[in-house]
UniProtKB/TrEMBL annotation:
Segments forming a coiled coil: none
Pfam families named in the record: DUF3192
Lineage: Bacteria, Pseudomonadati, Pseudomonadota, Gammaproteobacteria, Alteromonadales
Listed name of the protein: Outer membrane protein assembly factor BamE, lipoprotein component of the BamABCDE complex
Top-level taxon of origin: Bacteria
Gene3D superfamilies: 3.30.1450.10
Signal peptide location: 1-25
The keyword Membrane is annotated on this UniProt entry: no
Keywords: Lipoprotein, Signal
Amino acid sequence: MKFPKLAMIGAVVILSAGLQGCVIAVNGDGENYSTSDSVSKKEASNRAAIASFTDGMTVETVQNELGTPEFSDLWTVDNVRYRVLYYRTQRVHADGNTTRDECTPVVFANGNLIGTGEFALSRIPQNN
């Protein structure tokens, strides 16, 4: 069965209308510009917030300011409950995935902030 030329043109127009707005611009790394830009802004915002933190802040206060962490660890040693929240602060790998080495640890003992960064993390006992 042959379709009339007008019917075929109509089908092409209808089908192509659904494709409008589907263009994705990518940079040289193969990342979406808007995504890369928004991630960079979020990283800068996280760095600024973490730099302003003071000892004793609660887990809730930090999460209210920074949102859900990329990673979270929780353990108890000698009746002290340690929680480490990891927030993305720099890009190391341009692969679209967030890894711990792209995050800054925010370290709590019994719900209160005791430090940030790798040095703070290295100073707390590990759960063996």
